[in-house]
Amino acid sequence: MEKDLVVVKSNDIINASYRLSVSEQRLLLACISQIDSTKSLSDQDTFVITASEILDLMGADNKSRAIYRDLKDATDRLWDRTISFSDNDKHYGKLRWVNRIDYYEKEGKVILRFSQDIIEYLSELKGSFTKYKFQYIANFKSAYSIRLYELLVQWMSKGEREIAVSEIRGLLDLGEKYQSIAELKRRVLDVAVKDVNKYSNIRCSYGQRKLGRKVVAFQFKFKLKDPSSASGKNKNYDASKIGRLVTGSTQDARPGETMIEYLARKKRDKK
């Protein structure tokens, strides 16, 4: 499987609330990256991914059989996984990711079909969507890292984003977990930021905004990594391609436009 696979998602999905393990997200995103987001898709279209292909995308040196166990576990859980949507607390609903998923143990292979309800957020996208290369999240160790990366890349043209504490808890579907700010930072944000900075094509940091003594929001700053500072340890980071990397999109981005192209066009438009 080629390593330049690109994930394209409607921003409505990125801004929805859901909880997936890192293995489940890898499986779903590897399948999503096979979709041509400009064309139609049906719930009968099938997507195939194997454990060896995921290892190849990760660039892993150690061909551990744990990937087979993780793929099987992800298959078992994905059938019951849902996405929650709300509209200013006036409307609340859930939808499933898949309408069928099968695991073939001897081959270490998954065959998946997306649910009809999710298809509109993955295909025939014309407006508000985000794009990034699968390889930038392939080696993340935490499921929260993938979610944070998407939330930042979505605002790449701004380079900063403030997310209320209550909002980030909802987006990550934390429930009753990590109630204290210290625990939330240590168990979620610090782990995610470390992954993003080590493995992806962006570098980020965060601070916090207080109302009195209470922390009410986290303030993230992020930017594309300097090609000259690309880590040799990150085998997936190809500094020579920085000018054409698709890192995200905004409301007025053109389909297929990279962030570098987008920023250059916006600068020209201002003249």
Please give a structural write-up.
With 271 residues, this protein is α+β, with helices and mostly antiparallel strands. It has a single domain (6-270), classed as Winged helix-like DNA-binding domain superfamily/Winged helix DNA-binding domain (Arc Repressor Mutant, subunit A). The protein contains nine helices and ten strands. It has helices at residues 11-14, 22-32, 51-58, 66-78, 116-119, 143-153, 165-171, 181-199, 259-270; strands at 6-10, 47-50, 82-86, 92-96, 98-104, 109-114, 129-133, 160-164, 202-211, 214-224. The protein has a three-stranded antiparallel beta sheet with strand order 2-6-5. Helix 6 crosses helix 8 (181-199).
What are its keywords?
single chain, 271 residues, alpha+beta, Arc Repressor Mutant, subunit A, three-stranded antiparallel sheet, 23% strand
